[in-house]
Write a structure and sequence with these properties.
It contains four helices and no strands. With 113 residues, the protein is an all-alpha fold.
């Protein structure tokens, strides 16, 4: 049986998202809690999307997972006290998410991956 690394990455991303969201909801307070919950939400949504799209648009799916990681982990960093400049990285992750979804839209019905 061949291991599908895209599904592995998506599943691990979902696991991290659950942990971050739970800590944001139950362990952190104030802005830190909100940053963790926001990062967890975006990371989880894109982990689920990655599983759903894994056999249809692999390149776009990898881009979405990478974008979600950059977006979420920059927020997680801010939540645990990273310098505010780390927040400048967050939009780069967001652009990766947007680009991934545009790629999915453009490849819908096509044979390219």
């Amino acid at each position: 049986m061949r291991r599908d690394w895209l599904i592995v990455a998506a599943a691990l991303s979902a696991a991290v998202a659950i942990g971050a969201g739970a800590f944001g909801a139950h362990g952190a307070t104030g802005d830190a809690g909100e940053l963790l919950k926001t990062g967890g939400l975006y990371q989880m949504v894109h982990a689920v999307a990655a599983v759903a799209l894994a056999n249809r648009a692999r390149g776009a799916t990898w881009l979405m997972l990478a974008g979600a990681a950059v977006f979420a982990f920059s927020l997680y960093g801010l939540a645990i006290g990273a310098p505010r400049i780390v927040g400048a990285i967050t939009p780069i992750g967001g652009l990766g998410l947007i680009a991934g979804w545009i790629w999915v839209a453009l490849s819908a019905g096509g044979a390219r991956r």
